From TrEMBL:
Similarity annotation: Belongs to the amino acid/polyamine transporter 2 family. Amino acid/auxin permease (AAAP) (TC 2.A.18.2) subfamily.
Domain Amino acid transporter transmembrane: 36-471
Domain of life (superkingdom): Eukaryota
Positions with biased composition (Polar residues): 7-18
UniProt KW keywords: Amino-acid transport, Cell membrane, Membrane, Symport, Transmembrane, Transmembrane helix, Transport
Cell compartments where the protein resides: Cell membrane
Entry's Gene Ontology cellular component terms: plasma membrane
Pfam families xref list: Aa_trans
Any GO BP annotation: amino acid transport
Protein name: Amino acid permease 6
Recorded GO MF terms: symporter activity
UniProt-listed InterPro entries: AA_transpt_TM (IPR013057)
Length: 483
């Protein structure tokens, strides 16, 4: 995300070297903000970092609840819907014209430009609550992967009969300490390198999980699978089957949750070629690449584990051999989530800092930048408000993750809460406003039907996840070592 805190005297402070022969500033865009350098490649990396997140780990479990027929069908449906609405949203980056209109730097800015009124506040509430939820979820997931490495080594060293009790909490604290440092990266535009590293990590652990699943299937051994997933009366009761089906839909919705940061990602792309064309290309690459991984990981994971597929399929290989490969995969997950946390946190950081700087522009604590010369890096500008606020945010999300460390339930609830408003409703409503589609026309009608169907899907997915959280809370004791 481009910086919100820009000094009004920017143009006065430029040196002669900042100007090109024509007299225009070469280091800033036409609106006076720092010149963007992103391309569809870096945008694709951001998308893959955001999309191939911890959601891929729960897909084998989700397919197990839905079965061979409904599972892949739901995956493909979410893929098509996400791609379609993302292209609509990409066209809304500039207003009123997709190519020559005024830039909008955040999702809320886009909603303000096209819809206005109370919908701006509703968008902000949905987006930023979702971003908070995702960062909490990623803290939980990263700690699970770090614990898996420790337990894998313990089993390898002491034998499979040892319990190897391990607590998640020290690893959540380690993850939070890393985020304390990375959260001081000033803005989204400086995250390209981190996203590329994270995208490589996501491909690595997805490929390892896929490879282990294929090896397990090829190695024989009987597992129960069925066209309709887990069997009522054998694996689950009738009510559990319904609730788990709802929760599985929420988990798949979460696996495609990146619309919350689409506009912020698009705001890193340079203006030539037009941002919407580059973003559509990046969306196509990102969504279809991740869908391929999702289908393969979900289906082969289900084939490997059957109806007893674990919530996190990389922890389902028994922590046994090859222990080093499973360790490497879990380390890749942790590194990936370190980057993904920042992709989702930066829009929230930018929103709060921009709002505070506009309301207290004379407060030096909020707006003051202090130059610090860092060896091997150069000049880094320290802002005390940024330092305090971002550090406090990381600490609070880590504490909440420690109190409610429920992986699958949390993922499903986040996915259900964000899918309809941010991935479907607002992009469709803004597309209708932008293109002035006549009310009750054929296109208007089917867009509205799509929106309402997705609302129903989000509601039932949320219901399943809430029920799962309630069941987990009944037996959960906070801050207790897990076996």
């Amino acid at each position: 995300m481009a910086k919100h805190m820009q000094k009004t005297s920017m143009f006065m402070e430029q040196s002669p070297s900042d100007y090109e022969n024509g007299g225009s500033l070469k280091n800033v865009d036409d609106d006076g903000r720092p010149k963007r350098t992103g391309t569809w490649v870096t945008a694709s990396a951001h998308i893959i970092t955001a999309v191939i997140g911890s959601g891929v780990l729960s897909l084998a479990w989700a397919i197990a609840q839905l079965g061979w027929v409904a599972g892949p069908a739901v995956l493909m449906a979410f893929s098509f819907i996400t791609y379609f609405t993302s292209t609509l949203l990409a066209d809304c980056y500039r207003a009123p014209d997709p190519v020559h209109g005024k830039r909008n730097y955040t999702y809320m800015d886009v909603v303000r430009a096209y819809l206005g009124g109370r919908k701006v506040q509703l968008c902000g509430l949905a987006q930023y609550a979702n971003l908070v939820g995702i960062t909490i979820g990623y803290t939980i997931t990263a700690s699970i992967s770090m614990v898996a490495v420790k337990r894998s080594n313990c089993f390898h060293k002491h034998g499979h009969q040892v319990k190897c009790q391990t607590s998640n909490y020290p690893f959540m604290a380690i993850f939070a300490c890393i985020q304390l440092l990375l959260s001081q990266i000033p803005d989204f535009d400086k995250l390209s390198w981190l996203s590329i590293v994270a995208a490589v990590m996501s491909f690595a652990y997805s490929s390892i999980g896929l490879g282990l699943s294929i090896a397990k299937v090829a190695g024989g051994g009987h597992v129960r699978t069925s066209l309709t997933g887990v069997t009522v009366g054998v694996d689950v009761s009738g009510s559990e089957k319904i609730w788990r089906t709802f929760q599985a839909i929420g988990d798949i919705a979460f696996a495609y949750a990146y619309s919350t940061v689409l506009i912020e990602i698009q705001d890193t792309i340079k203006s030539s070629p037009p941002e919407n064309k580059s973003m559509k290309r990046a969306t196509s690459v990102g969504v279809w690449t991740t869908t391929m991984f999702y289908v393969l990981c979900g289906l082969f994971g289900y084939a490997a584990f059957g109806n007893e597929a674990p919530g996190n399929f990389l922890t389902g290989f028994g922590f046994y051999e090859p222990f080093w490969l499973i360790d490497f995969a879990n380390v890749c997950i942790a590194i990936h989530l370190i980057g993904a946390y920042q992709v989702f946190a930066q829009p929230l950081f930018g929103f709060v800092e921009g709002w505070c700087s506009r309301n207290w522009s004379d407060n030096k604590f909020i707006t003051g930048e202090h130059a610090v010369d860092i060896p091997f890096y150069g000049i880094y500008y320290v802002n005390f408000f940024r330092l305090v606020w971002r550090s406090a945010y990381v600490i609070v999300t880590a504490v909440i993750a420690m109190i409610f460390p429920f992986f699958n339930d949390f993922l499903g609830l986040i996915g259900a809460g964000s899918f309809w408003p941010l991935t479907v409703y607002f992009p469709i409503e803004m597309h209708i406003a932008q293109t002035k589609i006549p009310k009750y026309s054929f296109r208007w009608t089917w867009l509205k039907i799509l929106s309402w169907v997705c609302l129903v899907v989000s509601l039932i997915a949320a219901a399943g996840s809430v029920q799962g959280l309630i069941q987990s809370l009944k037996t959960y004791k906070p801050f207790q070592t897990q076996e």
